[in-house]
């Protein structure tokens, strides 16, 4: 099992609501435990690599630091657009496509704001209000819950 498969398994367990998953193979064992009140605990045991096959570790890419965002003083006059379902939030139709909306964009009733993937179905989420996007509250490709705030919109 490679690191990509482990990451996919962790994402699956966190979305599914299962509390614990254990997988045991001939020379590999992994246990993933989740708890509503505490962050997920991951434990993996890998076999030791033979000394002859030891090599220098691959370089790790470091993601750039996110841009500082000015805090929004008063959110009482903004409309919160919430997730209508559980799934994975995407800001564009695919990695190569442009983002549906950015902070500062003007939107109208029926504008596509994002996609939420649920059980391999991609659902376009449309705006029910007209206004300007003030803040995007969810990171791209992250899981969302039902009724979780996604966007803050300043109404027209």
UniProtKB/TrEMBL annotation:
InterPro entries in the cross-refs: AcCoA_biotinCC, Biotin_Carboxyl_Carrier/Decarb, Biotin_lipoyl, Single_hybrid_motif
Lipoyl-binding domain span: 78-154
Lineage: superkingdom: Bacteria
Listed Pfam families: Biotin_lipoyl (PF00364)
Alphabetical list of SUPFAM superfamilies matching this protein: Single hybrid motif (SSF51230)
This protein's pathway: Lipid metabolism; fatty acid biosynthesis
UniProt keyword list: Biotin, Fatty acid biosynthesis, Fatty acid metabolism, Lipid biosynthesis, Lipid metabolism
Transmembrane segments: none
Reported function: This protein is a component of the acetyl coenzyme A carboxylase complex; first, biotin carboxylase catalyzes the carboxylation of the carrier protein and then the transcarboxylase transfers the carboxyl group to form malonyl-CoA.
Name this protein carries in UniProt: Biotin carboxyl carrier protein of acetyl-CoA carboxylase
Gene name for this UniProt entry: accB
């Amino acid at each position: 099992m490679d690191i990509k498969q482990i990451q996919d398994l962790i994402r699956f367990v966190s979305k599914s609501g299962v509390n614990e998953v254990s997988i045991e193979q001939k020379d590999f064992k992994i246990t993933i435990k989740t708890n509503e009140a505490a962050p997920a605990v991951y434990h993996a045991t890998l076999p030791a690599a033979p000394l002859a096959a030891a090599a220098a570790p691959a370089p790790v890419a470091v993601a750039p630091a996110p841009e500082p965002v000015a805090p929004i003083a008063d959110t009482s006059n903004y409309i919160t657009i919430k997730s209508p379902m559980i799934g994975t939030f995407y800001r564009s139709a695919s990695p190569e496509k442009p983002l549906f909306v950015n902070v500062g964009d003007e939107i109208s009733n029926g504008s596509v704001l994002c996609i939420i993937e649920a059980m391999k179905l991609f659902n376009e989420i449309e705006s029910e209000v007209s206004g300007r996007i003030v803040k995007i509250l969810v990171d791209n490709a992250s899981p969302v819950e039902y009724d979780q705030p996604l966007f803050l919109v300043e109404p027209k």
